[in-house]
Amino acid sequence: MSRSRATARAPAPAPQASDAAPRAGASSLGLADAPAQHTLADGATVTVSGGAAEIRDADGYLLVRYENGSATVAAPRGDLTLAAPEGRVLVRSGGDVVIESAGAIRERAAGPIELEGDGLTVRAHAVDLVATTVSVVAHGIVTSASRVATKVERYELEAERLVEKARDAFREVTELAQSRVGRLRTLVADLYTVESRRTVMVSKDDTSIDGKRVLLG
After folding, report:
1. Alpha-carbon distance values, 176 to 49, 128, 158, 179, 181 (Å)
2. What one-character DSSP code corresponds to residue 204?
3. CA 54, 55, 58 angle in degrees (round to 5)?
4. Nearest Cα to 77, choosing from 97, 91, 98, 56?
5. Looking at the domain assignment, is residue 62 inside a domain?
6. How confident is the model at residue 18, as a pLDDT?
């Protein structure tokens, strides 16, 4: 065979798919199982992998994650602010809304704060209420406590009927104690004692004292 005759060449091997992870900033949308990642100018990354989308900062901390209709928004090293300077901020949930905080929870508003629901339960070690005026409108109020202390400059009570029940009742008045009633009836089971420096009893009509013995002096 002549040397000038061209020799046959073996076919080149077919290119194989690489298993190496894609370089940062390189898109791998053509590979079904490999994550698609895009790097932003500040080093943050946006990754889509396994049906989930994630946004991480330059140090790898998770900021946003979305998967199967659920989303997580995080601020691992700073504040998380939701702002709508020209509108409202609405939070809607088909289930419960849970707010957990390692510190205090504060609410501030230029207008009134309204709570509306089927019920309101507050569990706390101590509750402080500071207000100029407090108004309570309810069909019924039930209070249970081992001790109730009230200190006011003036106390007014208006009721159709007043019922008081106690094992012992003590009342101390420094100056005047006055009761103005249409009729007065006092029922004492055992001993009735009145002690005073001076006693005055005035009746426009009859005065009756009835007993087995009436001792005067």
Report:
1. 83, 34, 20, 10, 16
2. S
3. 135
4. 56
5. yes
6. 39
Domain count of the chain?
Answer: 1
What's the chain's length in residues?
A: 217
Positive or negative, the CA dihedral 125, 105, 87, 95 is: negative
pLDDT attached to residue 79? 87
Q: Max Cα separation, the chain? A: 164
pLDDT tens digits for range 100-156? 999 999 999 999 999 999 999 999 999 999 999 999 999 999 999 999 999 999 999
Query: Does 58 fall in a domain?
Result: yes
Indicate the pTM of the whole model. Answer: 0.56
Eight-state DSSP code of residue 54: E
Give me the pLDDT at residue 34, please.
63
Ranges of residues in the chain with a pLDDT under 70 are 1-34
Among 57, 14, 49, 58, which Cα is nearest to 29's?
Answer: 49
Q: Which residue has the tokens 């979305």?
A: 66
Strand partners, 66: 53, 71
- Pairwise CA distance, residues 192 & 194, whole Å: 7
Q: Is residue 50 part of a domain?
A: yes
Q: Has residue 182 been placed in a domain?
A: no
Query: Distances in Å between the alpha carbon of 133 and those of 108, 111, 128, 200?
Result: 18, 16, 14, 43
Segments forming the whole domain that contains residue 34: 23-70
CB 99, CB 105: distance < 8 Å: yes
